[in-house]
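Q: Hi! First time doing this. I have a protein sequence and I read that you can turn it into a structure. Is that right? Here it is:
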Amino acid sequence: MTSQTLSPAFFAAPGTLCDRLDDTEITWAVTASTNLALRGIPVEPGDIDVMTDGPGAEAIERRFADQVVNEVAWSASAANRIASQFGALDIDGVRVEIMGDVSRSTAATCR
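A: Yes, that's right. Below is the predicted 3D structure, encoded as C-alpha coordinates:
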Protein backbone atom coordinates (compact mmCIF):
# COMPACT_ATOMS: atom_id res chain seq x y z
CA MET A 1 0.00 0.00 0.00
CA THR A 2 1.35 3.43 -0.88
CA SER A 3 -0.09 6.88 -0.37
CA GLN A 4 -1.92 6.31 -3.65
CA THR A 5 -3.53 3.08 -2.39
CA LEU A 6 -4.12 3.81 1.30
CA SER A 7 -7.79 3.48 2.18
CA PRO A 8 -9.57 6.83 2.33
CA ALA A 9 -10.02 6.48 6.12
CA PHE A 10 -6.36 5.60 6.61
CA PHE A 11 -5.23 8.49 4.45
CA ALA A 12 -7.63 10.90 6.20
CA ALA A 13 -6.71 10.03 9.81
CA PRO A 14 -3.58 12.25 9.92
CA GLY A 15 -5.76 15.11 8.66
CA THR A 16 -8.21 14.46 11.47
CA LEU A 17 -5.32 14.62 13.93
CA CYS A 18 -4.19 17.93 12.41
CA ASP A 19 -7.68 19.41 12.53
CA ARG A 20 -8.30 18.48 16.18
CA LEU A 21 -4.81 19.40 17.41
CA ASP A 22 -4.24 22.55 15.34
CA ASP A 23 -5.12 24.99 18.12
CA THR A 24 -2.89 23.29 20.71
CA GLU A 25 0.76 23.60 21.64
CA ILE A 26 1.26 19.82 21.27
CA THR A 27 4.33 18.85 19.25
CA TRP A 28 3.68 15.55 17.50
CA ALA A 29 4.64 13.61 14.39
CA VAL A 30 3.37 10.66 12.37
CA THR A 31 6.23 8.16 12.36
CA ALA A 32 7.15 4.67 11.18
CA SER A 33 5.47 2.96 8.22
CA THR A 34 2.62 5.44 7.80
CA ASN A 35 5.11 8.29 7.51
CA LEU A 36 6.85 6.33 4.76
CA ALA A 37 3.58 5.47 2.97
CA LEU A 38 2.47 9.10 3.02
CA ARG A 39 5.77 9.93 1.30
CA GLY A 40 5.13 7.35 -1.43
CA ILE A 41 7.36 4.53 -0.12
CA PRO A 42 5.75 1.15 -0.93
CA VAL A 43 4.94 -0.16 2.55
CA GLU A 44 1.70 -1.46 4.07
CA PRO A 45 1.12 0.20 7.44
CA GLY A 46 -1.08 -1.63 9.90
CA ASP A 47 -1.69 1.43 12.04
CA ILE A 48 -0.64 5.04 12.48
CA ASP A 49 2.13 5.75 15.00
CA VAL A 50 2.14 9.20 16.59
CA MET A 51 5.16 10.31 18.62
CA THR A 52 5.04 13.16 21.13
CA ASP A 53 6.15 13.88 24.69
CA GLY A 54 4.39 12.57 27.83
CA PRO A 55 2.12 15.58 28.35
CA GLY A 56 1.37 15.56 24.62
CA ALA A 57 0.24 11.93 24.75
CA GLU A 58 -2.13 12.73 27.60
CA ALA A 59 -3.42 15.85 25.82
CA ILE A 60 -4.06 13.92 22.58
CA GLU A 61 -5.95 11.31 24.59
CA ARG A 62 -8.15 14.07 26.11
CA ARG A 63 -8.81 15.63 22.68
CA PHE A 64 -9.92 12.25 21.31
CA ALA A 65 -11.60 10.97 24.50
CA ASP A 66 -14.53 9.56 22.51
CA GLN A 67 -12.15 7.48 20.37
CA VAL A 68 -9.79 6.01 22.99
CA VAL A 69 -9.40 2.22 22.78
CA ASN A 70 -6.37 2.00 25.12
CA GLU A 71 -5.82 4.68 27.74
CA VAL A 72 -2.39 6.34 27.81
CA ALA A 73 -0.25 4.64 30.45
CA TRP A 74 3.39 3.83 31.06
CA SER A 75 4.50 0.83 29.01
CA ALA A 76 7.82 -0.91 28.60
CA SER A 77 9.06 -3.78 26.50
CA ALA A 78 12.15 -5.56 27.73
CA ALA A 79 12.34 -7.47 24.43
CA ASN A 80 12.39 -4.26 22.37
CA ARG A 81 14.12 -2.17 25.05
CA ILE A 82 11.57 0.59 24.52
CA ALA A 83 9.67 2.46 27.22
CA SER A 84 7.03 5.16 26.73
CA GLN A 85 3.63 6.52 27.56
CA PHE A 86 1.39 4.46 25.28
CA GLY A 87 -2.25 4.58 24.25
CA ALA A 88 -4.40 3.98 21.20
CA LEU A 89 -7.30 5.60 19.39
CA ASP A 90 -9.71 4.44 16.72
CA ILE A 91 -10.23 7.18 14.13
CA ASP A 92 -12.85 6.05 11.62
CA GLY A 93 -11.69 2.44 11.85
CA VAL A 94 -7.98 3.25 11.76
CA ARG A 95 -5.87 2.36 14.80
CA VAL A 96 -3.73 5.31 15.91
CA GLU A 97 -1.05 4.47 18.49
CA ILE A 98 0.17 7.34 20.66
CA MET A 99 3.67 7.18 22.14
CA GLY A 100 4.97 9.83 24.53
CA ASP A 101 8.44 10.25 26.02
CA VAL A 102 9.81 7.29 24.06
CA SER A 103 13.17 6.08 25.31
CA ARG A 104 15.47 3.16 24.78
CA SER A 105 15.77 1.15 27.92
CA THR A 106 17.65 -1.85 29.19
CA ALA A 107 15.72 -4.85 30.45
CA ALA A 108 16.80 -3.95 33.98
CA THR A 109 15.16 -0.54 33.87
CA CYS A 110 11.90 -1.41 32.16
CA ARG A 111 9.00 -0.98 34.57
